[in-house]
Amino acid sequence: MRKQSSGKRPAMSSPSAQGRFRYFLERAIANMRQNVFVNIVTVGTITLALLIVSLFLLLFVNLENAAENWSEKVQVTIYYDKELTPQEQSDLKTSIQAIPGTSRVNWVGRDEAMRRFKGRLKGQETLLDGIRPEVLPTSFEVSLKKANRSTEAIDQYVTSLKKLPNIGEVQYGEEWVRRFNTFLTFMRIVGGLVGGFLVLAVVFIVSNTIRLTVYARRDELEIMSLVGATRLFIKMPFLLEGLMQGLVGGVLSLLLLLSVHLLFLHNAGNFLTFNPATAGLSFLPVEYIAALLAAGALLGFLGSLTALRRFINEITG
C-alpha cells in the first residue's frame, strides 16, 4: 500500500543573518556594476565635497597648532622704572604666583635686559655704544597656563594682576591676541557654513542617484513587494550601495588630501620664506580621519534613505 501524503509542505528554513547580509551585499555590488557612470558621478561628488571639508580641517588643525605654539610665547610683562630689592622681588613674585592661571614668573634685571637688547641687534651692537643699562626698565615676565591664554582669560588675569600692591605698568599685546582669536573664530564659522552646504549638496546628489537606480528596477521591486518582501529587505541593498559609495568617496578624498599635503611640503620652500617641513605642519589626526570616513559613509547612507523613503511607500503602500 502506498503511504498517504500528509499534505504538508516541508518547512523552509529561513536564511541566516550572515546569508541575508551576503545577499544584500551582492545585490548592492551588482547595482553599482549596472550603473557604473552614475556611481562614478556620485562617488566623485562625495570625494570632492569631503576633500573641500578636509582641506578646511587640515588648515584649521595647523592653525590651532600654530596658535598653541604662539600662545606659549604670549607673556604678561610688568615693567618698573627702578631696580627692586631682593625682598621686593620675592614678595611680588609670591603674590603673582598666587594668582590662578600663573605658570611661571621670571625677573629680568637691567643687565639682563641690556643683554637681550644687544642680542636683537646682532651685528649692529655699535648702535648701543654709550647707552647704559640704567636707561632700561626692569620687569617681571609672567607665563600663563594653557587654559588661561584666550583673550577673555588674559583680560581677567590682568585685571587680577593690577589689583596687587606695588604693581608696575602691565603689557601683554592684547590687540594681537584679540585679532588672532577673532581670526580663528571666523575660520570656524566659515568651515561650518561650507561644511553644512556641502552636506546638503551631497545628500541631494546621492539621493537622486539612488532614485535613478531604484526607478530603473521599479518592476522588479514591485514584484518583490507583491510576493511578500519586507520594506527592509527591499531597501537594504540600496542602503548598502549608498554606504559603500560614501566610504569609497571618503577614502579617495583622504588620499587626495594626503597627496596635496605631501606635494605642498615638498615644493612650498620655493615660494615661502620658511621651510614648512620643519615648521610643524602636520596631517590630520587619526580621529579626524576616522570621522571623515564615517561622514562619507553616513552621507551615502542618508542619501539612499532619502531616495528610498518615498518610493518604497509608493510600491508598498
Supply database-style keywords:
four-stranded antiparallel β-sheet; disordered N terminus; single chain; Alpha-Beta Plaits; 2 domains; 317 residues; alpha+beta; 9 helices; 66% helix; 4 strands
Helix content, binned percent: 55-70%
Largest sheet: number of strands, sense, barrel closure: 4 strands, antiparallel
Order of helices and strands: HHEHEHEHEHHHH
Distance separating the two termini: 51 Å
Overall pLDDT: 77
From the alpha-carbon coordinates, what is the Rg to the nearest angstrom? 33 Å
The percent range for strand residues is: 5-15%
Strands, total number: 4
Number of helices: 9
Shape: elongated
Short recap of the structure:
Helix content is 66%, strand content 7%.
Explain what you see.
With 317 residues, the protein is an alpha+beta fold. The chain is built from 9 helices and 4 strands; from the N terminus they run ααβαβαβαβαααα. The radius of gyration is 33 Å and the shape is elongated. It starts with 16 loop residues before the first helix and ends with a helix. The model is unreliable at 1-13 (pLDDT under 50).
